[in-house]
Every structure is written in C-alpha cells, then in structure tokens.
C-alpha cells in the first residue's frame, strides 16, 4: 500500500505542476495528507492509527474547499463530516475494545490476542467495519465520494480515489476483521433472510457495485462518472474482504492497488488534461469538441484507463476482479453473479463516457460553440505522471505474481488465523 | 499552629493579593497622569510579576499540610492546579494589555487577581464553608469583570443575568450545605462522607428478599442542591442560560477568564465535592441498570449539555456565542471525568480542563484581535483572515481543531484520555458506553461549526484591505498558547506524568 501511496502522490504532484493560486499552502496541506496516509498504513498501534486517520481529514477539507471546483464548499464539508463521523464510530469501537481488554497497550498484536466475548464482538465489529467502510465508499454511506471527487482539485481527487478510499478498506481488513473476527459469525436469528453481519455487509457491497455502475451510466459530468465508478470498484474490494477465503482476500488487496492506479489516472485525465483546457466536464459540451483529435495523448490515456477499469485482461483490474469474483463465487454464489453483472454495466458506462467525451462527431447544432482552437498541448510532467500509472497497472496485470507474492504470505500471519477459521464454520 | 506558619502555607495566595493591592495603589497614586496604554502595561507587569512570584514560591517550596481539618489543604495536587490557574491568569492578563474598554485600569487588573485568589482558595478547600466563601469571592469578581465595559449595554445585561443566576445558584448551594451540616454535624467533606455512609443509607429488604440500599430523602435533597450550585458554576445544561450572554457581552479578557480559570477551578472542586463528600453514594449510570446516586444525576446533565451545546452551536453566527455553546458541550464531556471517580477520573479531567482552557483563551484572543479590527465578532468578520494575518489564522486553526478533537493536538488526547477513563469506570461491563458513544458522535457533529469558522478564515474572500496588527503582545501570547496546545498534544506525558505523580503524592 505504501508503494501505491508513493506512486499516486508523485503522480499527483506532477499533475499540479502549474498550480498558481496559493501554491505553498496547497503543497503544505497535500504533504500533511500524504503523511497521514503513510502513518495509517505504517501504524500497528491502534492509537497511532486513529491519530493519523483523523489527521488526514483536515487537509482534505482545505484542499477541496480552497482549490476545488463545482460546489466545493458543500463537497468538502460533506467529505469532512462523513470521514469524521466514520472515525467517531471507529473511535467508539476501539475505545471499548481497549477498556474491555484492560490492556495497558493499544498495540494491534496485543489486542488481537485478547478473546473478546462473542456478544461484544457482534456489536463492535459492525461499528468499526462500517466506520472504516464509510471512507471506503460502502453503500449507502458513499454519497460523499462522488461530490467530494468532483469538487476536489486534480491531485486531491487522485489521492482521494487512489489512496484515501483504500484507507477505509485497509482499516476494515486490518482493524475491524482482525480484532473482532467472531463478529462475522451468525447472529443466531434471521432478519429478511440475513443471518450475520457478513451477509448484510456483503449484500451492501454488491448493491454498491451495481448501484455505482448503473448511476455512473447516466451521469452528465465526466468526473461524476469516475466518482461513481469508484464506488462500484470499492464495492469489489469490500466484497472480496467479506468472502473470507484466500482468493477473495488476495483479490481485494490487489483491487485496492489496481483501483488506486486506475482511478488516479482517470481523474488526472479528466481534471488536469481536459478540465484545465476546456473548463468544462459536462459530457454534452465535451461532445462538440472532438477532443480525440485535439488532445490525442489525453484520449489515449483515457482509453487505456477505461479499458483497465473495465477489467480487460492485461491490466491490473482484470486480475483483481477475477480473484474477487472467484472468491465470491465460492462464498456466496448469487452475490458473485450480481457482481459480475456490475462489471458488464461497467463496460457500458466506460464506453459511453469515452465515446461522448472524446470520440463523438460534432453535431451540426453545436458546431458554432465548438472547441476553442488554442488548447495547450499536454506538458511533459503530465505525460510522465500518466506513464508511471499506466506502466504500473500494466505490470501488475501482466505479472500479478509480483504483488501476490507480497500479499499472500501476509494473510498467513497469525493475525488472520482466527478470521480464516471463522470462514470454515 | 502559629500565624507565621499559616502565612507561609497561604503564601502564594498572599503574594497574589499583595500584587493586586500593589497595582491598585500604584495606579491610584502614581499612574493617574499617564496615558491608558502605559497604565495597562505597568499594571499588567505588576500582575504578571505577582503570579510569577506565586508560581515560583510553589515550585521552590513544596509544602504539604492540612490546616484546620480541610480549611486549607496544601499538597502536590492542589499546588499543580494552582500553578495551572496562575498560568491561565497570566495569559488572560497578557490578552488584556491591548484591549481598551475602560478607564479604570488598576481596578480591572486587581479584580482579575482577586478572582484568581478566590479560585486558588477554592482549589485548596476541603470544607464546605471555605468552598462557599471562595466560590463567592471568585463569582463576585467575575460578575464585576463581566460588567466592566460600561459603554456597552450588552456587557451590563450579561453581568446582570450572570449575577441573578449566580446568586440563585449560590442560594441553592448554601441550602445544600445546610442540609449536609444537619446530616453530618460537620462541614468537612470527609466527615460528611462518613456520616452519609453510616446514617443516611437505609437498607430496605424487598418482599422477595432482595436487599436494596436507598438514599435518605434529606441526603438526596442535599446532593441535588449541591449539584445545582456547581452545575451553574461549570455551565452545564439546564443551568447554562447565563453562559452565552456572558461570553458574548463581557469584555473579551473577562470572558476568557470565565471560560478558562473559572472552569478549571470549578471542575476541580466539583469533582472533589462529589468524589470525597459523597463517596459511597455514586450509584450507577449504566444503561438499563441505573442505581440511584449522584452518577446517574450527572449522567443526565452531561448528556443534556453535550447534545444541547453542540446542536445549538451549529446555528450561531456570532463566534463568541458559538464558543459559549461549545463550552457548554465541553462541560458535558468534562462531567464524564467527574463521574469516573477520583482515582481514574481526576487526572484526565484536569488534563482536559487545562488543555481546553488553553484553547479557549486562545480562541478568545483571536476573536479579540479580529473584533478590534472589524468592530464585531460575526462569522463574516473573519472572512479572509488568513490573507491579512497568517500567523493569527494559523493559531486559530490550531485552537479550533484542538477544540474539535483532531489529532495531534491536545484536544484529541484529552478526549481519548477522558473517554477511556469514563468507559473504564463502569467496570468490565462498559456501563457508561451509551454516554461515551453519545459524546463521541456529538464531537463529530461539533467539527461542523468549528470548520465554519475556519472556512471563513481560509476560504472566504477578504472584503477589506489589510491593516496593521493592533495587538502585537496578544499575538505573541497566542503563538505561545498555540505552541502549548501542540506540545501537549504531541507529548501529553509532559502534563499527565506530573498529574499522576501529584495524585499519587496526594494519596488519591
């Protein structure tokens, strides 16, 4: 995950190379955000984890509210409150765990060894899982994501989609699921056919996949399309986590990585290459501009990004989603099939956005309002940034073992032992 | 016990009183002819010197004594709290140097010091009579300080409200004290606890053979009266009505003193009276398993303060009113510390109260500078402050985020410390989980209004041209305060370790 953060952060800097408005403050907030994210991924102590997790909230607010676009103050406030609300839930859960265990430490390793009572886990698990899940775009708490992404400046939305949403998923896996593995067990009674948090949450994840994809299909703004597609892709991550089998878990982690790269790439094209030059992201207006001809590099990059996001073989998204689906098929077949449906819709919205934004013929009625002729060419930092992200995605797609070798052994650690045992029950 | 010894034990208070009298006479005899800014600077210097001397005395000569069964208790714990109070007073004085609202300079600073002396005696007292007297000394000084801006009708109105509510609350306290004296035959807190435990608890055996311990109605009445009196002092709902007006109408340094020093002293003595005087009568505030006692009573007050304070703060457009409602919410959080009991709860409570006070004084200081420049303290007056005064804005960022409880600032650690103590106090069953959850969720709500202030500062466009900073001393004070908030947040051990040591030495 550190690798991902580094990649996305560097690319983000490259894509805000020509920022002029209050540049010093921008990069100061940006670095605080990245510092917070690194901190979360590196902390094994829950107190520190919480510190860094909340530390990352404030710079996000200012990045969006000062340098953002479309309805920036609304989007920023919504994002900040959702994140802080989520961390409040996590805070309650962790505090309760800390006090119950009576430990003098908040080290994850120590706490995970404590046998929390079944009843305690049954309420603490959903609290922390949903708390982190809010940041991972868990349906129905995802609504901050599209507005936040759309409002954010390019580098910030790359980080948001690329890394910050992964923080949530990472927290779900690392904290909620390892600390309270028994929380996934059966309730002992059924509500609407659901018998455990696992069933309920995986249902929410699948709804997120399908809902995100179908909503993306009808958006009129390019960034909204990408924003909702993020919700859909993060649904795969959460679904993968909840399968509780090796394939699903590996796939989920791989998907986190892959989506980080791809979403970053897509936001970079939309926000930096297209919006800064045409000053609109409305698909209807972009339709008249023939961007495919005017900005060939942007078009090619976006095609690659969309193709990767659809999950075409050869890119990282394919390997990841395949693994998640395999895992899901074993754990809950019906939901796996529905998630597969989500991929189909994904193909549809990607192609639609692609076609409308870059490759449509100018309509006669709009010929007059066509594109300004003086679109600046794509600059060198932008090219480098895009190439780094594409390269990484291709590499993982063609040679997934590279990452899987890192991921698989980490699941063999004793932390996850209880969790995988739980899956057998 | 000789008078010399008594004077030695009460030396810090005596030094502060001497400083107050000294600056009064200096102002009267020597400074009449000078301009007001010079008079303010000289008086502030005398006041700061007095506080510094008192701090130095306590730091150099550690004493431990209990004069006349709790009339004046001197031990490491009270010493630490007194040092904290004096530091807060010094900050208040420094913020007052550049605010020009009264020609009676000497009187103003003398009253600030008298109020502080009242708080210091309050902290040292373990006897209800002494507590009441010092409480009145503090309150009377604060009433006058609130009314000090005579040109401003709001200030007078605020002081009148504060005074009326305050005297009613004092009457309640006194009534409670008289009931307690009737029960225990003594005004000493320890005696009261013993008497309450032996006489006033009745054991009732139910029809099915279950044994229940009931609280004597007389004692219950006394507890309620006492809680009302202190609840007013710390501005807990439903005794909070004076707070928004006082915070908004009072001259800003007075409001800062009410929000900081008086809060710390009030909470310390509140916790002491409850945990020492009513030891054994805690009851339980656990959800669906409440047992009568003072803890469930406080739990209700805390829940009401947290909810009402945070929700009403959402819609305020005056920053000082916003701070007042946020203070009510914070009082609710601090009540959690009182409920946790003396052993586990006192250190988090004091840490929280002290760091909260630093942030609150700082926030009032920023409001003061903005108000001098813009003439009002509405949210719009803060627009674009980051362009006009970057250092000031950054200080405000730190104070607001600390109040909201964002790491790595002191407010976050304070909340963590306080909430984990409150959660642990209920035993392994997490009895107060409902209240702690409520507090955490509402503190997430509070981020909204703190961000509203920061939004104006950092994001809104500046309407007016930048002017010169009218208050360099205040600005440097604020930088020091902000530094303190960051330092205590990053290294809470600086304060918690000395608190823990003092608590051990005091035998709590």
Q: How far is the N terminus from the C terminus of chain B? A: 26 Å
Low-confidence stretches of chain A: 364-371
Strand content of chain A: under 5%
Count of DSSP strands of chain A: 2
Unreliable residue runs of chain B: none
**Any idea what the shape of chain B is?**
globular
Binned, the helix content of chain A reads: over 70%
Would you give an account of this structure?
Helices cover 76% and strands 2% of the residues of chain A. Chain A is mainly alpha-helical and 425 residues long. The two termini of chain A are 30 Å apart. Chain B is mainly alpha-helical and 508 residues long. Chain B has a domain at 293-508. Chain B has a two-stranded antiparallel sheet. In chain B, a hairpin with a 4-residue loop joins strand 1 (65-67) and strand 2. The two termini of chain B are 26 Å apart. In chain B, 58% of the residues are buried. The model of chain B has no long low-confidence stretch (mean pLDDT 87). The chains are: A mainly alpha (425), B mainly alpha (508). Chains A and B meet through helix 3, helix 4 and helix 5 of A and helix 18 and helix 19 of B.
